[in-house]
Specification:
It is a single chain. 31% of the residues lie in helices and 15% in strands. The protein is α+β, with helices and mostly antiparallel strands. It folds into 2 domains: 99 residues, no CATH class; 31 residues, no CATH class. The strands form 3 sheets. It has a two-stranded antiparallel ribbon with strand order 1-2. Strands 3-6 form a two-stranded antiparallel ribbon. The structure holds iron/sulfur cluster. The site of iron/sulfur cluster has 16 residues, from helix 3 and helix 4.
Length: 179
């Protein structure tokens, strides 16, 4: 469902590469002139990831968008005096071509589908009944004839009260008056 406009947790490889260790006090202008990027290869983003992926390898199916790598990397960037956001919420388009976020037809369709689904859910919630009952014949039992010649059947009734108040329940046989 994602494309190059989708906002995901992303590593800004244009800013980060070429990754490499940073010596304390080393000016970043010098690093830049040597062709190095902002990633100092500390691997904090990898060690905090609950699924163990390296977000610097790109968007991966295992990513649960917990954003732990964003926080870890921002902390590192603050410590070394570089701007936050080397890993951030961004689209591939914004990283590769510097395009700002824009609303695409795909987003419009997905939003519409989401609104319809939310509407259906709201309708089902507001029109549901307070009580749900299930009536099942007891397993493995056929009818029995009592000594007085009456027919006896055994059923299991399960009543679920979905509200927060007490609901009076009455069980009544609608046919066979008096039985
Ligand atoms: S936390 Fe940031 S600086 Fe450290 S390895 Fe990950 S991307 Fe590079």
């Amino acid at each position: 469902m994602i494309d190059e406009n989708t906002m995901v947790v992303a590593y800004d490889y244009k800013r980060g590469e070429r990754r490499g260790p940073w010596r304390r006090g080393q000016p970043f202008l010098q690093r830049e002139s040597e062709g190095s990027g902002d990633c100092i290869n500390c691997r904090q983003c990898v060690s905090v990831c609950p699924t163990g992926i390296d977000i610097r390898d790109g968007t991966q199916m295992e990513c649960v968008h917990c954003t732990a790598c964003i926080d870890a990397c921002d902390t590192v960037m603050e410590k070394i005096g570089r701007p936050r956001g080397l890993i951030r919420y961004a689209s591939l388009d914004s990283i590769e071509r510097g395009k700002l976020f824009h609303f695409t037809p795909r987003m419009a369709v997905y939003s519409l589908v989401l609104v319809v689904l939310a509407g259906v859910l709201a309708f089902l919630v507001f029109t549901r009944s307070d009580v749900e009952a299930t009536l099942l014949r007891a397993q493995g039992l056929l009818h029995q004839t009592t000594d007085e010649g009456r027919i006896s059947n055994l059923y299991t009734v399960k009543v679920i009260n979905k509200s927060t108040r007490d609901v009076p329940v009455e069980l009544r046989l609608e046919s066979h008056q008096g039985s």
